[in-house]
Amino acid sequence: MKVLLAFYSRTGNTERLVNKLRETLSDVHGVEIAVHRIIPPREYRLPYLNPKALKDALSEKGTPGVKPIDLGEYDLVVIASPIWFERPAPPVTAFIEEARGCEGKRAIAITTSVSARSVYAKRLADRLRKKGFEVVGWYSLKRGHLPEEVVEELKLLAGQSR
Ligand SMILES: Cc1cc2nc3c(=O)[nH]c(=O)nc-3n(C[C@H](O)[C@H](O)[C@H](O)COP(=O)(O)O)c2cc1C
Fold first, then answer.
1. Single pTM value for the model
2. What pLDDT sits at residue 161?
3. Which residue has the CA at smallest separation from atom 4 of ligand 1?
């Protein structure tokens, strides 16, 4: 089972979460983890006050110029995104839009945010479904916090083959 953890993080919450996930999921028998950091061509300055950040967050395409990757070799793709303006962060939206090999691929959507509204992870899951992913789990988490019950579910999902 090859599992990809793809994430974007500007202030470290999502990165910390992904580091914890990498540690816990690599304990699952037969699971091999790869990590991909999504990097926008230029970081948004002062994103809360930046009209471009708002525009890209609300757009279906996200940040222009995010490098596409092929997901063909992975059995499961976990996508972790901060929430910006109640949407997945725009570099993540672009990553999903540009990715190849998504059709029928199992995916898990994870969002980190301050308020952790459940609709946040659902929005990320919707974006994934639109690209043809089969979304098998979605979790809306508070900042970098990873509850034990989520870890247990993710371990089960990571160890399952089709
Ligand atoms: C531009 C911007 C907009 C944000 N909008 C929201 C929001 O709508 N709801 C929310 O709960 N948190 C919001 N946040 C908080 C982040 O989602 C939260 O701090 C997240 O965990 C940051 O992840 P990171 O540290 O990996 O970059 C926003 C943060 C930024 C920078």
1. 0.98
2. 66
3. 84
In tens, the pLDDT along 149-162 reads 999 999 999 988 66
Cα angle, residue 156 at apex, residues 77 and 86 outer, rounded to 5°: 50
Tokens 């691929």, located at residue: 105
Q: For ligand 1, atom 19, name the residue with the nearest CA.
A: 113
- Residue 64 pLDDT: 97
Q: Is 113's C-beta closer than 6 angstroms to any atom of ligand 1?
A: yes
Q: Tell me: domain 2-159, CATH 2.40.50.140, correct?
A: no
Residue 140 in contact with ligand 1 by CB distance below 6 A: no
Ligand 1 within 6 A of CB of 14: yes
Q: Whose CA is nearest to atom 3 of ligand 1?
A: 84
